[in-house]
Amino acid sequence: xxxxxxxxxxxxxxxxxxxxxxxxxxxxxxxxxxxxxxxxxxxxxxxxxxxxxxxxxxxxxxxxxxxxxxxxxxxxxxxxxxxxxxxxxxxxxxxxxxxxxxxxxxxxxxxxxxxxxxxxxxxxxxxxxxxxxxxxxxxxxxxxxxxxxxxxxxxxxxxxxxxxxxxxxxxxxxxxxxxxxxxxxxxxxxxxxxxxxxxxxxxxxxxxxxxxxxxxxxxxxxxxxxxxxxxxxxxxxxxxxxxxxxxxxxxxxxxxxxxxxxxxxxxxxxxxxxxxxxxxxxxxxxxxxxxxxxxxxxxxxxxxxxxxxxxxxxxxxxxxxxxxxxxxxxxxxxxxxxxxxxxxxxxxxxxxxxxxxxxxxxxxxxxxxxxxxxxxxxxxxxxxxxxxxxxxxxxxxxxxxxxxxxxxxxxxxxxxxxxxxxxxxxxxxxxxxxxxxxxxxxxxxxxxxxxxxxxxxxxxxxxxxxxxxxxxxxxxxxxxxxxxxxxxxxxxxxxxxxxxxxxxxxxxxxxxxxxxxxxxxxxxxxxxxxxxxxxxxxxxxxxxxxxxxxxxxxxxxxxxxxxxxxxxxxxxxxxxxxxxxxxxxxxxxxxxxxxxx
Amino acid sequence: xxxxxxxxxxxxxxxxxxxxxxxxxxxxxxxxxxxxxxxxxxxxxxxxxxxxxxxxxxxxxxxxxxxxxxxxxxxxxxxxxxxxxxxxxxxxxxxxxxxxxxxxxxxxxxxxxxxxxxxxxxxxxxxxxxxxxxxxxxxxxxxxxxxxxxxxxxxxxxxxxxxxxxxxxxxxxxxxxxxxxxxxxxxxxxxxxxxxxxxxxxxxxxxxxxxxxxxxxxxxxxxxxxxxxxxxxxxxxxxxxxxxxxxxxxxxxxxxxxxxxxxxxxxxxxxxxxxxxxxxxxxxxxxxxxxxxxxxxxxxxxxxxxxxxxxxxxxxxxxxxxxxxxxxxxxxxxxxxxxxxxxxxxxxxxxxxxxxxxxxxxxxxxxxxxxxxxxxxxxxxxxxxxxxxxxxxxxxxxxxxxxxxxxxxxxxxxxxxxxxxxxxxxxxxxxxxxxxxxxxxxxxxxxxxxxxxxxxxxxxxxxxxxxxxxxxxxxxxxxxxxxxxxxxxxxxxxxxxxxxxxxxxxxxxxxxxxxxxxxxxxxxxxxxxxxxxxxxxxxxxxxxxxxxxxxxxxxxxxxxxxxxxxxxxxxxxx
Lengths: 597, 574
Known about the structure:
- The complex is a heterodimer.
- By secondary structure, chain A is an alpha/beta fold.
- Chain A has 5 domains: 6-113, Glutaredoxin; 131-341, NADH-ubiquinone oxidoreductase 51kDa subunit (Rossmann fold), CATH 3.40.50.11540; 351-434, Ubiquitin-like (UB roll), CATH 3.10.20.600; 439-527, de novo design (two linked rop proteins); 541-596, 2-Layer Sandwich (Alpha-Beta Plaits), CATH 3.30.70.
- In chain A, the strands form 6 sheets. A 5-stranded mixed β-sheet of chain A has the order 9-10-8-7-11, sandwiched between helices. In chain A, strands 13-12-16-14-15 form a 5-stranded mixed β-sheet, with helices on both faces. A 4-stranded mixed β-sheet of chain A has the order 2-1-3-4, with helices on one face.
- Chain B is of the alpha/beta class.
- Chain B has 3 domains: 4-94, Ubiquitin-like (UB roll) (Roll); 127-208, 2-Layer Sandwich (Alpha-Beta Plaits); 214-565, Rossmann fold, CATH 3.40.50.1780.
- In chain B, strands 2-1-5-3-4 form a 5-stranded mixed β-sheet, with helices on both faces. Chain B has a 4-stranded parallel β-sheet with strand order 12-11-14-15, sandwiched between helices. In chain B, strands 13-18-17-16 form a 4-stranded mixed β-sheet, with helices on both faces.
- Chain B is globular.
- At the A-B interface, helix 17, helix 18 and helix 19 of A face helix 2 of B.
């Protein structure tokens, strides 16, 4: 076996690939060869590190030096300075945005410090296209343990004792779900992985698929053993080509080593995995719609019961879990339920991966222990609000979630606390908003998404979300009427309580939660025809402050609508009838004499 | 054995079997819950959500039409939450629905309108624009007005699950969802067979037959025209429903009386050509048995079935009887034999047929259906249209005087009448064949094995020493099973009767809406009562048929018959 004195890890997650990591990798290969280092330093292509906005990311071991936004032209310097001379390239290190200090080590970066990377533990560390690297990190040990030392019932008990809950949004106890499928009568059963990640901005599942596909495969195999299944499907959206490619490689490699297929570990247990590519309908994340889609039917949910545990794919008992849930399983089996249950809150154990985005300094994937506060995520991991503006709210749980205002920033996050705050865990999207965000517009934005993604099967979701959207559009345009809030509220309640599936039942959440915490903004739009955040263009008006305007005429010259008039060296005026609210005047005014209201 | 469970509905305790739905349990104790998409055994998908009720302990409201009761369930059908939600859901359905009820084809017969009234909806004001989608009038049978569709999916379930034609399905998503064909073309360019089962279950005006009442009125008002009408066997046991009578009422006499008052020059009975069909098809079958034709022989009376076999099983077209359907035989005979016999210029004859069927409209429009030299049948009315015609003419149905069909085609036998129910053609054929082959009179005319609403019925019998196996199939879903069995050579029959609609013509797409199994059962019983009530019950004993052969056709399968009463089939693209 070849021993290397160092490793260069180049991220090849979708984020870094998009920012050019393939070229960095190629250049690195070239330079290592040029400097005759290819026998000493190993170049490793890894999955996602989660800190995508800093990509392409390169990490050099054994020191663990973290390089950000590396370009091909930087590579030579890294090789020459760092790999040859042992002097890290300072200009490429991560800079702490508050202290402005350079942070050379991966583990010292704020973004990673408060994380507890268990599910993401291998992501960015191993080559996902090489099963041996997974095995070297104790991969497939849990499967061996389950198959050779545990009965299926014991596996289920272990998962139950760990307190693992579904990471796809619902938070249903995983062990219980497995038990239902185990107890359902039937010779043929299926294990299905929901990898139809659809929440805007959420990409934790993609990250696992791309960075640690074997964790999913191992988790699914353990689940199959537990419920008595010999075949599984991974339903992955076709928009994840890299994930699909790596899954295919991983499945083939696992087959080659006998970790999938017949008589695994000589236990008599067989397990076969299929990949089904989804066509990108958000609703196919709902388990019955997902099953319909695998069967080749229109991806639409159906009424439950019967639940998939009893009547699932092709009418057979089936167990559907999401990627992150399955990826937790090998860790629980390997390290024990007690270890897992020691993390988190009373009813939410382990960790959760959040996709942190919006008006926050550090964006990306963060895996944190359940029970962490939003403040810690946003200010410690996220580094606070961009431009140090005022925090307004965070939308949590994707388009079906809700917003959490400032007064709840110290809320420990778990499944139940979020529900009582009017949001939900969802798949773990966190969109941070600052004072410039209009909460009515936010609700409109998310409702627009769910309305478009409604499958159209049941009346309340199909018709109701459209009518709610129309009302919200009117309000943001300043055409809100007395009674709109009440109508929104009653529509929202009906849609929640009468819709067929989770999509409709949660679609009104953004409206309800913004109404709960920011009702005054709705009222300002409707009664005063004013957008307090100044975000709704239709409601904005521009005014020139007479005492500040010196009559330089530059605003009048840039105004494309010829809405500004005035004599040279005298205060100018904006004709609101002509103004198109483009904001060009404000940008050009050097005297802060124009205000938007 | 099913267990019983104890539940309470609105505080009232009751015990019901555990597989009972909340809806059925409530109805058992006289509490109704509104439903719209629900169609027992056909469309049990719980999508419209107007039937939601409150169940104590449940997070959300529960669709009562498909949720089974469980032990200790406490149901509130009229709690404020349930009532308000149902009202809101109904409002949402009505929000974009056209409000032209006064002039809508469905009008007072509309389930949606009736339900809105029942639920006390008085105002819908979300300000949403009314749906405005293009009309599909691509074909002679069925008009689809998607603007009036409320997406209950009954039609889709019937087409896909019952008939297995799958011409229509849901297309697009969310608010843009509609019912459509592949590539959203007109029905004409889809595998639709025009059976009209979708029309029969549609709760609104979204699916209707292509109305031909105007053409009929125009002909009636035209002094130059000699207007005759033929009425199908299955009409006499269902027309009453359109005019306020109980299902299963036989209204033959009143119907003839009413049609005479409407102004038809002659009122004839399609039973006559049903008998004629037996003469031709019976002899055709004997020829097949003698090796001059393919076995099994498949019947050809049902135009929906003909469209189906042309589209889905063209390899079996040689097995299909070349006999035209009774409707088309009638048209051809009227414009030839009748015209000649009564010295009427066939160009002035306008033949109307009243049929339980939408596919008959398509059939009458087939280009080959002009062997008389004219279009053999000029207008086809469904049972529903016939009811409208009588109402439009201002006829007091309750007091209309009974009358007899006109000669010479008013003469039909019981064998002709039973064409209206699944198994009837087979039974009528067996009655005649047995006597023709053996020369001996049958002791019992009732072939009960082939009767009833079962989808596939089989019988074995001996005909002149030869053992025969026959089958009777109704509903295209069942036809598919049998055709697949024949294709795979797993099934082996000599003669198969196939009707496109479940139950046969009594369940036809043109029959009064919502032909439930209970209603069909009553219509069927009435058909066999009508059979029993007739003096002659065997087609070959019909004196008018005998006279027709003597005066004009000469013999079954003769040259004239071949020209006027037989046809050919063409494979269709799916």
